Amino acid sequence: MNNAFYRLPERHTFEQWRQRTPRGFRVAVKMSRYLTHIKRLNDPAEPVARFFGHAEALGSGRCCFSFRPRSRRTWTRSMRC
Q: Which Pfam family, just one, is annotated for this protein (predicted)?
Protein backbone atom coordinates (compact mmCIF):
# COMPACT_ATOMS: atom_id res chain seq x y z
CA MET A 1 0.00 0.00 0.00
CA ASN A 2 1.80 3.06 -1.28
CA ASN A 3 -0.44 5.93 -0.19
CA ALA A 4 0.82 5.80 3.44
CA PHE A 5 4.23 6.74 2.05
CA TYR A 6 2.96 10.19 1.04
CA ARG A 7 0.31 10.85 3.67
CA LEU A 8 -0.59 8.66 6.61
CA PRO A 9 -4.30 7.78 6.43
CA GLU A 10 -6.42 8.02 9.57
CA ARG A 11 -6.84 4.87 11.63
CA HIS A 12 -10.49 4.52 10.59
CA THR A 13 -9.37 4.36 6.95
CA PHE A 14 -7.17 1.36 7.75
CA GLU A 15 -10.13 -0.21 9.58
CA GLN A 16 -12.31 0.26 6.48
CA TRP A 17 -9.66 -1.35 4.27
CA ARG A 18 -9.52 -4.31 6.62
CA GLN A 19 -13.30 -4.75 6.39
CA ARG A 20 -13.20 -4.61 2.56
CA THR A 21 -10.21 -6.91 2.12
CA PRO A 22 -10.85 -10.63 1.57
CA ARG A 23 -10.08 -12.86 4.55
CA GLY A 24 -6.51 -14.16 4.45
CA PHE A 25 -5.27 -11.35 2.20
CA ARG A 26 -2.10 -9.73 3.56
CA VAL A 27 -1.31 -6.09 2.99
CA ALA A 28 2.14 -4.50 2.96
CA VAL A 29 2.09 -0.84 3.95
CA LYS A 30 4.95 1.42 2.92
CA MET A 31 6.50 3.37 5.80
CA SER A 32 6.01 7.12 5.67
CA ARG A 33 8.57 9.13 3.72
CA TYR A 34 8.61 11.52 6.67
CA LEU A 35 10.72 8.94 8.52
CA THR A 36 12.80 7.59 5.64
CA HIS A 37 13.37 10.65 3.45
CA ILE A 38 12.89 13.70 5.65
CA LYS A 39 14.10 12.54 9.07
CA ARG A 40 16.47 9.98 7.47
CA LEU A 41 15.68 7.53 10.28
CA ASN A 42 16.78 9.97 12.98
CA ASP A 43 14.64 10.02 16.14
CA PRO A 44 12.28 7.31 14.87
CA ALA A 45 10.22 6.65 18.02
CA GLU A 46 7.36 9.10 17.45
CA PRO A 47 6.91 8.60 13.67
CA VAL A 48 7.06 4.80 14.03
CA ALA A 49 4.57 4.81 16.92
CA ARG A 50 2.20 7.05 14.96
CA PHE A 51 2.50 4.90 11.83
CA PHE A 52 1.81 1.62 13.63
CA GLY A 53 -0.90 3.23 15.75
CA HIS A 54 -2.82 3.71 12.51
CA ALA A 55 -1.68 0.71 10.45
CA GLU A 56 -2.30 -1.89 13.17
CA ALA A 57 -6.01 -1.50 12.39
CA LEU A 58 -5.34 -3.69 9.33
CA GLY A 59 -4.56 -6.64 11.58
CA SER A 60 -1.59 -8.72 10.47
CA GLY A 61 0.49 -7.64 7.52
CA ARG A 62 3.85 -6.29 6.53
CA CYS A 63 5.63 -2.97 6.53
CA CYS A 64 8.13 -2.03 3.85
CA PHE A 65 10.63 0.79 3.63
CA SER A 66 11.62 2.83 0.60
CA PHE A 67 14.91 4.71 0.60
CA ARG A 68 16.54 7.13 -1.76
CA PRO A 69 19.20 5.56 -3.98
CA ARG A 70 21.95 7.41 -2.12
CA SER A 71 20.71 6.58 1.38
CA ARG A 72 23.06 3.66 2.03
CA ARG A 73 24.76 5.52 4.86
CA THR A 74 21.43 6.19 6.53
CA TRP A 75 20.41 2.53 6.34
CA THR A 76 23.80 1.38 7.61
CA ARG A 77 23.61 3.82 10.50
CA SER A 78 20.14 2.66 11.46
CA MET A 79 21.16 -0.98 11.40
CA ARG A 80 23.94 -0.31 13.92
CA CYS A 81 21.59 1.23 16.47
A: DUF72
